[in-house]
User: What shape does this take?
Amino acid sequence: MCDLIHYRLDGGLALIGLARPPVNALDQRLRAELVAACERAAADIRVQAIILYGVHGLFSAGADIGELGTDACFAEPDLPSALVRLTAIHKPLIAALGKLALGGALELALACGYRIGEPGTRVGLAEINLGLLPGAGGTQRLPRLIGAESALNLILSGEQIDAERARRLGILDRIASSAGQLLEEACAYANELIECAAPARPAQAWPKPAEDLPDDFLARYRAEHEPRWKSRLAPRLVLSALEAACLLPLEEGLARELALFKQAEASRQSKALRHVYFAEREAARIPGVGPEVTLRRQDKVAVVGAGAMGTGIAMSFADAGIPVALLERDGGALERGLLRIRTLYQARLKRRKLSAAQLRQRMDLLFGTLDYNDLADADLVIEAVGEKPDLKRQLFLSLESLCKPGAILATSASSLDIDAIAASLQRPQDLIGVHFFRPANVMRLVEVVRGEATAPEVLATVLKVVRRIGKLPVICGAGQGSIGERMLEPYAREAHRLVLEGATPAQVDGVLTGLDLNMGVFSMLDLAGIDTSFLTRGATPHDQSYCRIAQALCALGRHGQKTGRGFYLYEGQSRQEDHEVSALAAQLAGELGVARRAIDDLEIHDRCLLMLINEGIRLLDEGIALRASDIDLVWINGYGFPAHLGGPLHYAEQMGLDQVLDGIRRYRQALGDYGELWFRPAPLLERLVAAGATRVERI
Assistant: This one.
């Protein structure tokens, strides 16, 4: 056979190994060789059973995602037809699932008659995360194996489940005693099947997948879950495919599934989610920093500041099993910080997300201190104090003299230029920014800010440790504000200006959440606390044109959810409009000479989104962002921009860059002096449109 397949005979068994490093992705070449090997074994009278396995321990991570949207995806043999051919073989096929069997790989295993895993095996159908549904029999064979309800929940969650749960559900028939014994025990299982003359495929466990369910189960399931799906297409297509599994014979169900898969694959949402998938992998690439860079040790971490941000950062390291010292100057503040951490862990314990032993283990990894000398042996020190330049400069001067040579010094600042901090240090090469998002123990995104003097090994080390704690690092250049906050300012500016001009906070937020953003501008500011927002800092002479509402609310003690009043009124978890805010906006508009009028939803969408996009393109042009896709990751993971829209700059590409530019120019003219001041197209956007470009990239 070719180098993609290892084929050998062992008595009456044909052992067929997948050997396409690194993850045995089921591309067209591997599919063709796999089918050829299985049909060769089927035709060999010496072979009584066939075992499929991964040569290097891992079975397969599924389809080759790079083929999606190309002709290769359905080049013969495509995966659906290849698996139908395997099910026609009249000899037992046993799938020996090492480590992973995800997506198309699990569908391959489902096409086999029997399945055995190892203790560490994980299986799942994760296509939903790419805006797809299983397209090679997953929505038809899985319900017939474990029932419609269990199959539906597994497919819609995209969850990877462990071997024991897979065995209980009925996906696995057996679990080998160890990974090293998997192939040997698979052979023993195959010989047992031969001895008892087992059929090539056992009888279906659930020939009628919905047999035990109410007649209206699928309709009720849709009604219950559709509000959470918002505008996402893939969950609805999954439900349609499961309905086919319940109502149609297998052959017709497979045809229906394939048609639905092709509909999903061609959708804008799936293209956007595939963009996000590749963006995350591209974000790990550091231009000019190769694998030859020697990383620094990262065995002990310290966090300065036991406020909400500092405690969240400390928890992130403890969750990953990394010892962390938490330093505060004030004993009461330290005590409150440690209590906050314990309370959050106890809440996880109550929700059964954490065991009592795990809680103790994490708390044992946390060391509270008031003594700066306890930071002397730390490998990484992260400051999480207030956004005050002089305070941070003085802190880093102290840390520089205290910490051991080679220790990495990191600031969590989001609005300050770290190069300004580095200018006063003797070892600026050791300084880097790590901007966590609130709550830091929950949010996945970390903007890693590379200063002009930051050493390559410092950057590479921090990226690795951020990934080690389960976060997504995105590289950001130094400047006044990170990628996210720079883009938030014009986005929020337009939201506030629109309220001055006559919209209501609820109307603005409704347009944005109607686009499937997690929350609108005003509900986000109420959640974060209006008093902590950049809107109240008075940073530019133009603030009064739109920030006066936020400043006025703060003066009234209306800081958001924590005070029960902000842009909205709060009672427990419920939020309602407050007409006093509209009256305040009208009063301020009169003082500022802003004409009020009725504003339609399209104008709200355009003004907020065009300014968000424009600033993102400006950041790319300035080199603050390395890639357009990095900007998309920041806004998806840090600000709740819907992943199925691909992020702001992917969304701009779908709108058409020429339309984005035309919209900015139109509002610049229509909004008078305000438009002249703020609606200035990014030079890169103008260059891209002039060049006829359809993608956002630096030129």
